[in-house]
């Protein structure tokens, strides 16, 4: 049997097709990208989260205005570690704070006034991003028209994102909505100040804990000019000229392939997929980019410099981590991004899971998986607990919501969403990642789990 | 506030508070009837404040529910939770979505239950009305409305805590123990959201602790109810109106006078007398205030948070000789302004009252009225940094320091701890070490 029904799921057998034990002779992908079973204790979030939290949120000089009751704005205020060199997007939280009156009579006027006032108070904002939440979709505010009217008044772009939380099955639709909105309304609205034959965008890199600050210089050292990062530490003004890149590279291939493909289809700019995690994958990405721009020698030079500096450190960590087994549960791509790098540390990933993976994510997981590897689509809390207890990994890379459950079970944990002490990308970041795994696995604190208090 | 736009709100929506109320009930699984973000976001906040896992179910409403209603999802969610977890109860909270589409949650829940082996609490908690405190109050009242039943008098006192920390609840329990008073806590997160790692990594399916359904049922037979957070007082009013349980809605026991009132209320309702140990605790609080008054006299302090706790801290700061310049709450409450005005008149202070506003406005007023110290949750960090003053953290959520949930700022003992925190912040920030050698 390739699919599995864990004990906790016996009452909800519809979960069985989502859980697969890998058999290379008979490859089956978990069922994915479908509605969650109601009440199954899912870890999923909503479409608003994918749009505002993941893709739109990192744009550092846009006023991020959430149109809805207060919760949705509050909960996305500085919660993802999408760092930037300015403070506007993480320090401030803007909300129309809709109340019952607006739900009955509409929130149009409140939204219009909120846009105008935000601009007056924060003139440094280069644009206003307006995100619709569930209730806005239900009461039917014409946010498109309001944003247009407000934009004419204040003279800066006001972009409406129709990302009501109830749309779609997970955060994933929110990524797509953000990509499509930014492509249709922003990309191509301005030309770059200058163009070179070596212009490239890094797409799907959100500067989590400073990842972009590690990977961008690697390409610059090769002689590539990074036109934009979509959207980590990005200015609003970085997005309009993306169509003039000569090449796009896509790091988060779940949340951002959409825009790379749209730019390719409309403007003929090719894109390539990269994994900027781990030594080999990062080197491969540099080589692929070097090959495209005919900068092979430069790429090899940068790789050699980085390996000379960081490979010995990785080798040291490998000595301490060789033979360990781990679980990786991420949104989607980091599950397969990290399986290879774990092997560079001598670690085998025995279970992967994703919150909102699509077929292509699971194909990439299965390409890397050993026989017997367990793969779960949209796992719920009970499944995670059951597998942690059953398979007892040496550590688990997940998100904050799983962290303390894992600790109670006496299992080391690494926050893969925001990181412990990142950045984790690139050669240098991988040393941080390895160090955090070493800290998690080899801390003496775990010794007390199996040391009960007894009177001898 | 004259603005339409809200900037940096220190308030959340109703489901957040309702989930916290349900998490204080033994064997109760919170179920959010709404979009998936409506459970995920509160879980995230609970996890980062308490550093605990917070399991919350969701009915995963999507487009079809927007058109046809959410009854199918809610029914299936109830069935699935029961068959997989077999909990004592499910605590439902609604959201802006399920309220706007107009699901009759009570009716759906009633139909979904095939037998009496599990209770369902159907709280109405629309996110576009009130704040997290409204949600807490609604869920707590729903618990009592669903379960409370007249029986034999039980000689206990009901304590409604509001949204306070496990450390605070433990301190209040400690006081009641010293006074030999039995109690029912409505509800009680002191164990459910501060769980131990057990030997061998053994973990119960649902956390130990929390108030039992039997105790909530028995709350109708108590000698009285004390709500220390008046924003959470509607359950007390319900018990009084329906079962003649006397109720007192009084300030949070922080500082000398408010804690005195709490002790006096306990004595009046239970007939207990004040034991020596409580007298000694009170004496230690006064001793701690005397010890630090040279450091703290006239110190300007600006405070933001939930209204009951802010007004109690304002009074305590005034008692300690400090100068509370700004008191801010995002949740409006009728007692907030009168509380602060009373302190102003008793201590000749001039505390600015900000109610139903946001931290952007709070910061503007702090700039004009001054602060040497800011008290609030983690959302005050940037303001404190901009003003180059320390932030002493209390309230919810505090995610950028560890352990805040473990310690109490309530009762005489907790007040000592709070004053020490404030004083040490001032000493660390303001004082030349040469002046601190004795």
Would you write up a description of this structure?
The complex is a heterodimer of chains A (456) and B (438). Chain A is α/β, with parallel strands linked by helices and 456 residues long. Helices cover 42% and strands 14% of the residues of chain A. Among the domains of chain A are: 47-185, Rossmann fold (3-Layer(aba) Sandwich), CATH 3.40.50; 199-300, Rossmann fold (3-Layer(aba) Sandwich), CATH 3.40.50. Chain A has helices at residues 47-56, 70-75, 88-91, 100-105, 108-121, 134-139, 143-154, 172-185, 211-221, 257-267, 279-293, 296-321, 333-337, 339-344, 359-368, 381-391, 400-408, 426-442; strands at residues 19-21, 62-67, 94-95, 127-132, 158-161, 199-205, 225-231, 247-250, 271-273, 325-330, 348-354, 374-377, 395-398, 413-415. Chain A has a six-stranded mixed beta sheet, sandwiched between helices. Chain B has 438 residues and is an alpha/beta fold. Chain B has three domains: 14-142, 3-Layer(aba) Sandwich (Rossmann fold); 156-270, Nitrogenase molybdenum iron protein domain (Rossmann fold), CATH 3.40.50.1980; 277-435, Rossmann fold, CATH 3.40.50.1980. Chain B is built from 17 helices and 14 strands. In chain B, the strands form three sheets. Chain B has a five-stranded parallel beta sheet with strand order 12-11-10-13-14, with helices on both faces. A four-stranded parallel beta sheet of chain B has the order 3-2-4-5, sandwiched between helices. In chain B, α1 (14-23) crosses α2 (37-50) and α1 packs across α7. Chains A and B meet through α1, α2, β3, α4 and α5 of A and β1, α2, β3, α3 and α4 of B. β3 of chain A pairs antiparallel with β1 of chain B, so a sheet runs across the interface.
Helices and strands in order, then pairings?
The complex is a heterodimer of chains A (456) and B (438).
Chain A: E1 19-21, H1 47-56, E2 62-67, H2 70-75, H3 88-91, E3 94-95, H4 100-105, H5 108-121, E4 127-132, H6 134-139, H7 143-154, E5 158-161, H8 172-185, E6 199-205, H9 211-221, E7 225-231, E8 247-250, H10 257-267, E9 271-273, H11 279-293, H12 296-321, E10 325-330, H13 333-337, H14 339-344, E11 348-354, H15 359-368, E12 374-377, H16 381-391, E13 395-398, H17 400-408, E14 413-415, H18 426-442
Parallel strand pairs in A: 2-3, 2-4, 4-5, 6-7, 6-8, 8-9, 10-11, 10-13, 11-12, 13-14
Antiparallel strand pairs in A: 1-12
Helix pairs in contact in A: 1-8, 5-7, 8-10, 9-18, 11-12, 12-18
Chain B: E1 6-7, H1 14-23, E2 28-33, H2 37-50, E3 57-58, H3 63-68, H4 71-85, E4 89-94, H5 96-101, H6 105-112, E5 119-123, H7 132-147, E6 156-160, H8 166-178, E7 182-186, H9 213-218, E8 224-227, H10 234-243, E9 247-249, H11 256-270, H12 276-296, E10 300-304, H13 307-319, E11 323-329, H14 336-347, E12 352-355, H15 359-369, E13 373-376, H16 381-386, E14 391-393, H17 411-430
Parallel strand pairs in B: 2-3, 2-4, 4-5, 6-7, 6-8, 8-9, 10-11, 10-13, 11-12, 13-14
Helix pairs in contact in B: 1-2, 1-7, 4-6, 7-10, 12-17, 13-14
């Amino acid at each position: 049997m390739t699919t599995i029904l864990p004990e906790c799921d016996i009452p909800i057998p519809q979960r069985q097709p989502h859980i697969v034990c890998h058999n290379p002779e008979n490859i089956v992908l978990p069922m994915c990208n479908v509605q969650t079973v109601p009440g199954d204790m899912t870890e999923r979030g909503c479409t608003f989260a994918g749009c505002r939290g993941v893709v739109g949120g990192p744009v550092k000089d846009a006023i991020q205005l959430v149109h809805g009751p207060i919760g949705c704005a509050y909960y996305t205020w500085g919660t993802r570690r999408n760092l930037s060199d300015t403070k506007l997007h993480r320090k401030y939280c803007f909300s129309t704070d809709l109340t019952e009156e607006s739900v009955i009579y509409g929130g149009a006027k409140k939204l219009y006034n909120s846009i105008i006032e935000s601009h007056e108070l924060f003139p440094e904002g280069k644009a206003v991003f307006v995100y619709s939440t569930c209730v806005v979709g239900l009461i039917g505010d014409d946010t498109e028209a309001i944003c247009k009217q407000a934009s004419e008044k204040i003279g800066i772009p006001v972009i409406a994102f129709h990302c009501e939380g109830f749309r779609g099955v997970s955060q994933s639709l929110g990524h797509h909505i953000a990509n499509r909105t930014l492509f249709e309304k922003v990309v191509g609205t301005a030309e770059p100040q200058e163009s070179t034959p070596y212009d490239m965008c890094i797409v799907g890199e959100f500067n989590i804990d400073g990842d972009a600050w590690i990977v961008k210089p690697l390409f610059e050292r090769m002689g590539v000019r990074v036109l934009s990062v979509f959207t980590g530490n990005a200015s609003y003004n970085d997005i309009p000229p993306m169509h003039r890149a000569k090449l796009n590279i896509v790091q988060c291939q779940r949340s951002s392939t959409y825009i790379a493909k749209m730019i390719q289809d409309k403007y003929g700019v090719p894109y390539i997929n990269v994994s900027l995690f781990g030594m080999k994958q990062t080197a491969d990405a540099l080589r692929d980019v070097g090959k495209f721009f005919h900068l092979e020698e430069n790429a090899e030079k940068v790789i050699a410099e980085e390996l000379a500096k960081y490979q010995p450190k990785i080798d040291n960590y490998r000595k301490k981590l060789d033979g360990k087994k781990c679980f990786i549960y991420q949104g989607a791509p980091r599950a397969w991004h990290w399986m290879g790098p774990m092997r560079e540390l001598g670690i085998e990933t025995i279970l992967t899971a994703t919150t909102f993976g699509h077929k292509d994510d699971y194909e990439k997981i299965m390409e890397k998986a050993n026989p017997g590897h367990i793969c779960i689509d949209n796992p719920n809390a009970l499944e995670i607990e059951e597998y942690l207890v059953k398979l007892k990994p040496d550590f688990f890379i997940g998100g904050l919501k799983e962290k303390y459950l894992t600790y109670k079970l006496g299992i080391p944990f690494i926050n893969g969403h925001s990181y412990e002490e990142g950045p984790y990308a690139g050669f240098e970041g991988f040393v941080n990642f390895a160090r955090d795994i070493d800290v998690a696995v080899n801390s003496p604190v775990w010794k007390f789990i199996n040391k009960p208090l007894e009177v001898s | 506030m004259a603005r339409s736009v809200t900037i940096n709100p220190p308030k959340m929506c109703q489901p957040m508070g309702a989930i916290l109320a349900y998490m204080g009930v033994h064997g109760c699984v919170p179920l959010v009837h709404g979009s998936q973000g409506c459970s995920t976001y509160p879980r995230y906040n609970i996890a980062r404040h308490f550093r605990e896992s917070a399991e919350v179910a969701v009915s995963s409403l999507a487009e079809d529910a927007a058109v046809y209603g959410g009854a199918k999802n809610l029914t299936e969610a109830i069935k699935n939770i029961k068959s997989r977890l077999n909990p004592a109860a499910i605590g439902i909270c609604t959201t802006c979505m399920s309220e706007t589409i107009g699901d009759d949650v009570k009716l759906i829940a009633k139909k979904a239950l095939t037998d009496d082996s599990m209770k369902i609490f159907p709280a109405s908690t629309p996110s576009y009305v009130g704040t997290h405190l409204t949600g807490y109050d609604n869920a707590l009242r729903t618990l009592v409305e669903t379960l409370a039943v007249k029986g034999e008098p039980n000689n206990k006192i009901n304590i409604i805590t509001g949204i306070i920390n496990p450390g605070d609840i433990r301190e209040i329990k400690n006081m009641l123990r010293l006074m030999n008073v039995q109690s029912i806590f409505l509800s009680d997160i002191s164990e459910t959201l501060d769980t131990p790692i057990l030997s061998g990594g053994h973990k119960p399916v649902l956390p130990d602790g929390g108030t039992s359904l039997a105790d909530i049922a028995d709350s109708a037979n108590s000698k009285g109810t004390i709500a220390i957070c008046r924003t959470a007082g509607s359950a007390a009013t319900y018990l009084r109106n329906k079962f003649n349980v006397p109720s007192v809605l009084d300030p949070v026991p922080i500082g000398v006078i408010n804690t005195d009132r709490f002790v006096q209320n306990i004595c009046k309702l239970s007939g207990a007398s004040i034991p020596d140990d409580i007298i000694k605790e009170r004496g230690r609080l006064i001793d701690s205030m005397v010890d630090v008054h040279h450091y703290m006299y006239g110190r300007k302090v600006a405070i933001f948070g939930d209204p009951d706790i802010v007004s109690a801290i304002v009074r305590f700061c005034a008692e300690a000789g400090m100068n509370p310049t700004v008191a801010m709450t995002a949740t409006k409450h009728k007692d907030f302004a009168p509380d602060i005005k009373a302190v102003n008149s008793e201590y000749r202070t001039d505390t600015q009252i900000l109610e139903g506003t946001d931290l952007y406005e709070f910061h503007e007023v702090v700039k004009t009225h001054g602060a040497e110290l800011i008290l609030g949750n983690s959302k005050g960090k940037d303001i404190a940094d901009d003003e180059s003053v320390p932030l002493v953290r209390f309230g919810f959520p505090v995610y950028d320091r560890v352990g805040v949930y473990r310690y109490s700022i309530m009762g005489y003992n907790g007040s000592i701890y709070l004053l020490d925190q404030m004083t040490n912040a001032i000493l660390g920030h303001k004082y030349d070490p040469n002046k601190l050698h004795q």
